[in-house]
Amino acid sequence: MNRTSPLETIAIALRRERDRLGVSLAELARRAGIAKSTLSQLEAAAGNPSVETLWALAVALDVPFSRLVDPPTRPVRVIRAGEGHAIASDQARFTSTLLAACPPGARRDLHHITGEPGPPRAAHAHIRGTTEHLLVTAGRWQAGPEGEEVELGPGDYACFPGDRPHRYTALEPGAGAVLVMEYV
Amino acid sequence: MNRTSPLETIAIALRRERDRLGVSLAELARRAGIAKSTLSQLEAAAGNPSVETLWALAVALDVPFSRLVDPPTRPVRVIRAGEGHAIASDQARFTSTLLAACPPGARRDLHHITGEPGPPRAAHAHIRGTTEHLLVTAGRWQAGPEGEEVELGPGDYACFPGDRPHRYTALEPGAGAVLVMEYV
DNA sequence: TCTCCTCGTTCGGTTTGACGAACGCATGAC
DNA sequence: GTCATGCGTTCGTCAAACCGAACGAGGAGA
Which regions form coiled coils (chains A, B) (predicted)? Predict the structure, then answer.
């Protein structure tokens, strides 16, 4: 099942999550309260860390413990909006539309966002391969990569790359949406 | 966030999974290729196992690694509209609430469902490990595992095991929701 | 009863992971 | 130029994780 050893998996995950936070090896070691020599060896896939060590790192990285022992990430695969299959329920009065099938190896964190009219909320580019899914639950939104914003109403769905600068603007009071952050 | 230490979590998980398989401590140690003294101390929450040791145990127990380190999941979790830890943006008038962080190795398919009042939509049990996330966008719903249905209004979020029979009932015309099917 | 087996725990000895100091290498201030 | 700061790596020391052996407890069978 698993080709790569857990140690390599951890080494890759540590490096990936540390890059995501944009902190140095020494800084992360400080935050986690471990010797930077230990962390250096771990990122080199040399060594066999104890649970306490890994736990401290997971806390410092602000990720669930198990994310560090994830199987390695697979190459980037993006599913564009509209590629989902529409599935009709066998029972009447009920429909289910597949908005986006999850690519293998991707992680999707589920958020609920709300906004009020005003200046747009500018989001910096996330790590490469990030995709954002937005489904409006209330009010109207204007969202998307800079220069390619689209306007969305209740029930509308959009997905766009999150690894470029992008914005959210609430156009009506009490605007809400479901935001799914997808990391590959 | 986590009250119990990772070591206790592991100790409990080891005991639970071993009981599930119905094997003795010595037998499990044999299968995992570790000394039974080591395993004995781990189940007593004494010690600080290395990743290799834990990995061998996870393989021998035939469970994903994360099952040994993640605290047990609660059956049904509801986050009411406005509840949850909302993170305010640096730019005002914008909040983001993390509903569910994606577990490693999981796949999440994103659906938008609509329903009309009438008989409930009964869903059969999906494959083991499936979790469903539901966030209501419009109207009111009653949903959840059979006998544990909860009523949800706009903005409410619930997640529950999908590997048991469960139902969705729309209580108002034009009810809508985002459904995320999570497969481990 | 006695024997034999397996259970889980406890006890030294060895291996090794974690630590801290020192290293070489960059970059920036003066 | 020199100095200072921070980076990531390497090395020697020490604590501890892991191991194997021995232990007492319980059960099955002759």
Answer: none
Q: Is B105 on the interface with A (CB under 8 A)?
A: yes
Q: Which residue has the tokens 């290799």?
A: B52
Q: Considering only the top CATH level, what class is A103-183?
A: mainly beta
Q: Which nucleotide is nearest to B43 (CA to C1')?
A: C8
pTM: 0.52
Residue A172 CB-density burial (10 A; 0-12 exposed, 13-18 middle, 19+ buried): middle
pLDDT tens for residues A32-64? 999 989 999 999 988 899 999 999 998 888 887
The CATH number of B77-183 is 2.60.120.10
CATH 2.60.120.10 domain range(s) in chain B: 77-183
CA pseudo-torsion sign B184, A16, B65, A57: negative
Instruction: Tell me the two tokens of residue A6.
Output: 């857990």
Interface of A with B in 13-32 (CB under 8 A): none
Q: Which of B10, B116, B118 sits opposite A51 (nearest CB)?
A: B10
Nearest CB to B51 within list A7, A84, A107: A7
- Quick one: fold of A6-69? 434 Repressor (Amino-terminal Domain) (1.10.260)
pLDDT, tens digit, for every residue of A14-37?
888 888 788 888 999 999 999 989
Give the three-class secondary structure for A66.
Answer: helix
Taking alpha carbons only, the member of B26, B14, B25, B20 closest to residue B55 is B14
